Amino acid sequence: MEASSETPPGEIHVIVGPMFAGKTTTLLRRIQSESSNGRSVAIIKSNKDTRYGLDSIVTHDGVKLPCWPLANLSSFRQKLGPDSYDQLDVIGIDEAQFFGDLYDFCREAADHHGKTVIVAGLDGDYLRKSFGSILDIIPLADSVTKLTARCELCGKRAFFTLRKTQETETELIGGADVYMPVCRHHYVSGQVVIEAARVVLESQIRCGSYA
Fold first, then answer.
1. Cα(123)–Cα(21) distance, rounded to whole angstroms?
2. Helix (H, G, I), strand (E, B), or coil: what is residue 180?
3. In degrees rounded to 5, what are phi and psi of residue 204?
4. What are the residues whose beta carbons fall under 8 Å from the beta carbon of 189, sequence distance 6 or more?
5. Is 179 among the annotated ligand-binding positions?
6. Which of 103, 104, 172, 180 is deepest in the core (most CB within 10 A)?
7. Which of the residues 11, 34, 95, 108 is marked catalytic?
8. Using CA atoms, how far apart are residues 97 and 130, in angstroms rounded to an integer?
9. pLDDT band at residue 2, thresholds of 50, 70 and 90?
10. Cα 156 to Cα 172: distance, rounded to the nearest angstrom
């Protein structure tokens, strides 16, 4: 299927980085700018993220906009309504790493429906492995912005997200109580500390089980 002559192809812009790097703030700033220029906009986020309420996106510094909380992106057109979707110019997607159908949705929306799609999310998980399918859409993207935070321990540029707790599941929703941005040095040293704590805890549990 090729883009129709009546609808020129759109664009895809990707914003990635660790937690607390300002990804959502950057996304909302872009969306607000597009709206101020008279374009019709909508924002989608994963319904897994309920930290600040289900039907809104809130940045860490309190900026808030309404959104569509969805389990998957493929349901968006139907939920919005075909006519409203056709009139839409810009689609923002926050916490994009949680959507398994991200690649297909972005390709279809930009290539065939003429939408500008702005995607924000984590490029890596707490183990520094690719998170979800957000890296898969980079070959589709018109632009990729890699943001950094400030290391919580030394103030240097932070590229990584360190999990403070010992949970091991990849998808663990949380804020500053669970995660912190760190530089490479403090990521490595932090992982050593967390692993040591895990070993001690497991040892205590084993000893307790035999008491």
1. 12
2. strand
3. -65, -40
4. none
5. yes
6. 180
7. 95
8. 9
9. very low
10. 25
**Residues 77, 110: contact at Cβ < 8 Å?**
no
Distance separating alpha carbons of residues 1 and 44, to the nearest angstrom: 25
Instruction: State both tokens at 178.
Output: 């669970």
Average pLDDT of the segment spanning 118-140: 94
| Rounded-to-integer distance, Cα 82 and Cα 61, Å | 34
95 a catalytic residue: yes
Taking a C-beta distance cutoff of 8 angstroms, is the pair 9, 56 a contact? Answer: no
Residues in the chain: 211
> What is residue 170's DSSP assignment?
S
Pairs from 76-80 (Cβ < 8 Å, separation ≥ 24): 76/44, 76/105, 80/42
Taking only the tens place, the pLDDT of each residue in 182-211 is 999 999 987 766 665 556 555 656 666 434
Alpha-helical regions (H) of 71-165: 76-80, 82-87, 102-111
Q: Beta strand pairing status for 149-150 and 157-158?
A: antiparallel
* pLDDT of the residue at 170: 73
Write the class of the CATH domain 11-210. Answer: alpha beta
Give the global pTM: 0.84
Q: Fill in the DSSP letter of residue 143.
A: E
Distance in angstroms (rounded) separating the CA atoms of residues 83 and 181: 42
In this structure, how many other beta carbons lie within 10 angstroms of the beta carbon of residue 132?
20
Cβ atoms within 10 A of the Cβ of 186, count?
A: 20
Intra-chain end-to-end CA distance of the chain, in Å: 67
